[in-house]
Amino acid sequence: MEEFHLYSIILKITIFASIALNAANSQELGTPKSGGNNQEASYFFYQRSEYPRDCAEVKAQCSNNNSSGVFVIRPEGFDEPFEVFCENEVDGGGWTVIQRRVDGSINFDRSWSDYKEGFGFLRSEFWIGNQKLSFLTNQKKYQLRIDFENSAGSSFFATYEGFRISDEFSKFRIVSVGQSTGTVDSFIETCPSNMVFKNCSCQTSCENPDVCEDTCSAEDDESCICPGGYFIKGDTCVPPEACGCYLTGRGVIPDGGSYVNDDCTERCSCESGTLICDSSFRCDANAVCEERSDTFGCHCREGFEGDGENCTRNDFTDCYDVYTSGLRNDGVYNIKPAGWPGSEFEVYCEMSNGGGWTVFQRRQDGSVGFYRNWNIYKNGFPDTATGELWLGNEKLYYLTNQKSYKMRIDLVNRDGVSYNLNYDAFRINNEANNYRLETLGSFTGNTGYDYMAYHRRRGFSTHVVDNDGYYYHHCGAKLHSGWWYNDNNHCYDANLNGVYNSSKSVNGVALYNRGANTYTSSLRFTEMKIRPV
Q1: Which pLDDT tens digit goes with each residue over 411-449?
Q2: d(Cα 55, Cα 16) in Å, to the nearest integer?
Q3: Is 324 helix (H, G, I), strand (E, B) or coil?
Q4: Are 458 and 368 in contact (CB under 8 A)?
Q5: Exposure of 133 by Cβ count < 10 A (0-12 exposed, 13-18 middle, 19+ buried)?
């Protein structure tokens, strides 16, 4: 169906009469007013005693005035006279105007009752009323004329012979309209059957459905465009389902674009107008599936970088880098110390006590055995950093030699009493130097005794590799542990990697006060960690 848009339209009927008088200002439609009681309308003395039945009779009786205006008529059989606008300046005059649209000032979205009785203002926009029109058109044979004006200001018209409508019982049906003549075909701009003529605006296409493209020319503010919900495809308008990359529930995906469902288990992409869906799509383990900017997708967690399908940690050298980046939650993070020859590795970061502590040892429940060989102590154990652990001497060497670090040791005895030892410097040497405890700074803490001083500058020993320097026995083998043992028959002041819950104080997770010659009971919790100075 072709459609056109008009700036004004006027419908009028006549029986080809002549001559009318001028009328007064426009009147509001409603209850008809008699001539004697109306102080605002213009009146004249009709040549006959009865009211004229239409504007053709008004013009015939008032032959001395050809002006258009508001007059009072009473169609044959109608109860009361009423006002109408008579048009006398077009095609011989005598036209009874039944409708006018010129500026949108009157709302035509009305009820049956409104259309029956009429509404609007006779000198602006109005509908005369179906009841009046029925009486009008059934008293004589009438011609209908429609005058148009388009957006460019061009005027044109159409006329129809034999116009008549029925009564309310027959729903005011158009009974006849007759043959048409006029100039309408040469002026009306028509649109293809799948477009509408309306105020020009941007439109979307199948190729680029998410972008509204401006299709208006600078000098034209109206155009043939696709109706709402339709897309341009080539030179025609189509519903979204006719676009090549239409996806139910999403709409049209632009060429080269993609869409991920709300649980990130499927991704559909548009490639050269073809929809391709991948149901094996999943987010990376370090990503979350969530909605951002009204679109679902995989997004790397805080501290990770990537496209959501593949996420890698930022290049942190220790937990202090993690802390200063804004990540303030305790947990497992990936780091890569300066010079580290391998890929990044997991560490447990503690963000209390100033934040940024890299934990390299923890004992808490005896779930992990610390009676290990040299290579295992070198590489670290176990695989996760969330429970009991030894980070690994090789990692600890690279960590403590990239910056100046301090160390903190937290202890809890079996009675639940907490202690801490703090050293303002800590560094170990490389494997060629037996991971020697090279630097141990000044001590502060609440233990009353510096338990680590006895191990300063000692090499690391395990039950096979003996670096304690004592000739008669092997501390690592004797105590079932790996540690920086000393060279006399006592082996240690701190034995934090000893046997958890041992029945013997000498090989347990214990401390020895050399001055008092006393052992502590087995410790419930130990944690060793470093942080840059």
Answers
A1: 999 999 999 999 999 999 999 999 999 999 999 999 999
A2: 10
A3: helix
A4: no
A5: buried
Instruction: Please say whether the beta carbons of 313 and 304 come within 8 A.
Output: yes
- Angle (nearest 5°) at CA 305 between 303 and 310: 125
Pick the closest to residue 360 from 411, 323, 407 (CA basis). 407
Local structure of residue 63 (DSSP, 8 states): T
Strands (E), 15-149: 69-73, 82-87, 95-101, 119-120, 126-127, 142-149
Q: Token pair 């006590």 is at which residue?
A: 353
Query: How far out from the chain centre does Cα 376 lie?
Result: 50
CA distance 336 to 399: 9
Residue that is written with structure tokens 């009974």 in the block? 175
The structure tokens listed for 467 are 């670096």
How far apart are the C-alpha atoms of 61 and 65, rounded to whole Å? 10
Exposure string of 332-358, with b = 16+ CB inside 10 Å and e = fewer, is: ebbbbbeebeeebbbbbbbbeeebbbb
pLDDT in tens, 468-500: 988 778 999 999 999 999 976 689 999 999 999
Q: Tokens for 105, please give them.
A: 């000032």
DSSP assignment of 120-162, as one string?
Answer: EBTTSSEE--HHHHHHHHTTS-EEEEEEEE-TTS-EEEEEEEE
CA distances from 102 to 8, 9, 293, 348 (A): 4, 7, 44, 77
